[in-house]
Records
---
Amino acid sequence: MTLQIVDLTEELIDEALDVFYESNLIHCAGAPDYFRPIPKEESRPYIEWIVKTPHTFGLAALADGKVAGIVFAAEEEKPDNLFAYQKYYKIYDIAVSEAFRGQHIGQALNEAVKERARANNIANIELEVFCFNQGATAFYHKLGYREVSTIMSLKV
């Protein structure tokens, strides 16, 4: 398998939608009271926003030319100087198609985000992982991520 990490472009959105949809179904199964299953095409505006907005970016992992994984992220900035860093990358979504899991594609996507961060003098990357997703949590720990906060939700 030949693996290539490329910037997500409009030409790759259809295939990226497939991977994102798979991820959505996993989230719906793991937290059905928090996520709702939506038709794949309803995520198109979100992915187009990632591709077109200056402070956001998407990367696609191409396995033999097919989108096997995606990462969507943005450069964000903390509004005060309380934190050790002001600017950081926030990973919104990272997903690998089930057919390609176990082939280090998620690791390659993470490395590509780290390289971009270094090139842009970004010292920190953050992401959110949902409690039910213990496999993802273990994966992020393996990559060197650590817990620094807990996001809590209250349905009213």
---
Amino acid sequence: MTNKIKLRENYPTLVIHSTDNSFGFGHRKNNNFESDELFIKKFDNDLCNNLIDDLNKFISKENLQKINKLSVSVGPANFNASRLIVVLARTISQQINCPIDSFSSFEIMAKRIASKNNISTNKKSFWIYKKLKRKGFIAGKYEICHEEKNSSDLVIRETVLPKFVKEIESKELSFEASYDDKEDLKELLDLSNKNLFGSNVDSWRKVLPLYPISPIN
């Protein structure tokens, strides 16, 4: 049985995101952009312990208990960081009975990449890829669902979850993955709030780190 969430007044959202060499937290109250608070930090030698310490510095235990929604990026990014932030997010979700959802790192950056490259045609699709150190790529496919005059209002759907591919088809539109800590945290906050009413309290079970290849690649 699915337990739908019951929103609390002035619902706040917490998001956790990581890239290849950094992680960050974002907090927004009642979907008010002006209330955004962000924390960004490069990886250190003890990410596991410092991740929790930095979260405690970013948000108090009292305010954490008030969170109505939690969202986390699941990769592809640094494998260990993706695994750690997913474990942290799932643990918080269980402890405070808070709904959680997840987004791939490529989906989070897709609108920014589309806007930067002036892709605004409805139903037009493109790939985002990340070249591996050895052979092959990790690539995901994205489609513009709505064309808006303002690029910030673009709606983009992930049609192919990032996966391993040997080659990128030259005939298809493609762009290299580009992380941006600040902008991606803001976009994750946007995605989280748009998906708020579709969440349920046991959704943590479906949130897993995404990494299409072995961590040693």
